Amino acid sequence: MRAPKSEATGTSGESEVLAQFERLGWGGVIDSRHDTGTDLYLRPRDARRYELGAVMGAQVKTGSSYFKSPQKDAEGTITGWWFAEDDREHFDYWLRHALPHVVILLDQDRNLSFWVHVTPERVVSTGKGAKILVPASQTVDADHNEALSDVALTQLPTPTWDGTAWTGAVHLAPVDEVRHALITPRLIAPHPNLAPDSISGLEALAMQTLFRDDLERILEPMSPSCTRRGE
Description:
Elements: H1 5-23, E1 27-30, E2 40-43, E3 56-62, E4 70-72, E5 78-85, H2 89-96, E6 101-107, E7 112-117, E8 124-125, E9 130-135, H3 145-152, E10 161-162, E11 165-166, H4 174-183, H5 201-209, H6 215-219, H7 224-230
Parallel strand pairs: 3-6
Antiparallel strand pairs: 1-2, 2-3, 4-5, 5-9, 6-7, 8-9, 10-11
């Protein structure tokens, strides 16, 4: 039995895009068991190959037919391509999904992949369906690795300020806390405005790394004589 050509194009495209991300140091898998609108699940890593704890979904479209609706500027230069579907099923699925999603158009002749993050402001209604512009300037390569990682990281809670107190390290795993206390101590050390009465050992390490002058006050409570003089 002969497999359809469209199947070969689709599966080879998914494999090629996954290989492009793997060359950037990402992890990933092809979802070959379900046809729900997510072809790849991609996991970004930092420069030292540490997992960033995020996952991004991708829908891959391969072939010249996906490059037949170009967007051009006033000088006639192609600035992107419109990806459209006759109904909103896939677009609504991507927008409602717990994971951020990108649409990727693969030009196999040039071995170039172009991507766009699917967000409500980028999706344009066409009546019953919808479309989105995939910029020609956004390719899957080292120059856009950070931008792609930023898309994946949108699923994670954004570090917030409570007044002026930093709370960015709330979700760190214990195995990472010592490393962060030494490399990014501001994430571990309590903010001075919190004026804590006691701290953990890791917080003390981070404060020492920052040369915080309030560390001694916290670790050495006032003596009874000092307390009487202050009464």
